[in-house]
Write a structure and sequence with these properties.
With 244 residues, the chain is an all-alpha fold. It has a domain at 20-154: de novo design (two linked rop proteins) (Up-down Bundle). 84% of the residues lie in helices and 0% in strands. The chain is built from seven helices and no strands. Helix 1 (2-50) runs parallel beside helix 4 and helix 4 runs antiparallel to helix 6. The longest helix is centred in the C-terminal third of the chain and has 86 residues, at 123-208. The N and C termini lie far apart (108 Å).
Length: 244
Amino acid sequence: MIFALLISAVRSADHANQRTNDVLAATQSVSNLEKSLIDAETGMRGFVITGNETFLQPTEAARAAIPSQERAVRDLVAEDDERALLEPLFGGIDAYMTQWVDRAIAARRQSTGRAADLIETAEGKRRVDDLRAQFEAIRAGLRSDAAKSRDDARSSVRRAVIAALVGLLVSTLLYTLYTIYVGRSIVVPVRRVGVDGAPDRGRRARRARPRGRDGARRARRDGALLQPDGRLPRAEPRRARGPA
């Protein structure tokens, strides 16, 4: 069970890291698309102010890059909540390019005053602000998803660590209980047998001890009268009794 939780924690951490990398890639693609939108606006404003066609180069480069950038955003943004925001964003970008940028460029080519009057309406700024707010909403959703993945990974790791600690404590407790059981069921009875058998050995020893005059004589012969080399002493010859 503990190993399963640890494996799950490792997988969650790996998923969180992968999700973070995916979010970074998706966020970068969204930022690239937003940059193209700003470049298109900047080039259009420069042309309207100066009438110099050179200022339209960023606008034309953005117009060429936007379709591929939109495809990249669609491929990298995976969450349903953020994907639901993509189509309105792409529609707003297309409308801005055709209904405002191209319209302002055409007005400037016809008349400087007419283009100036169009810019003063601030319609272009309002459109850009709305689109940038949509970009930010998508980026915020991506960051939220990444944060949720990281939180899930941390929770999984925390659960695995707690389970490991609990398992260690339970194992220690079981080992302690087993040691106590072995001590009470095996060691203590063996000691009791040894203690209970000691008086029997004493009684057997007392029964085997020689008694009486003959016993004392044998004891002196076998123990007390032994010579230093362990041999029994030689019997002294009896003296002949004299006449009374």
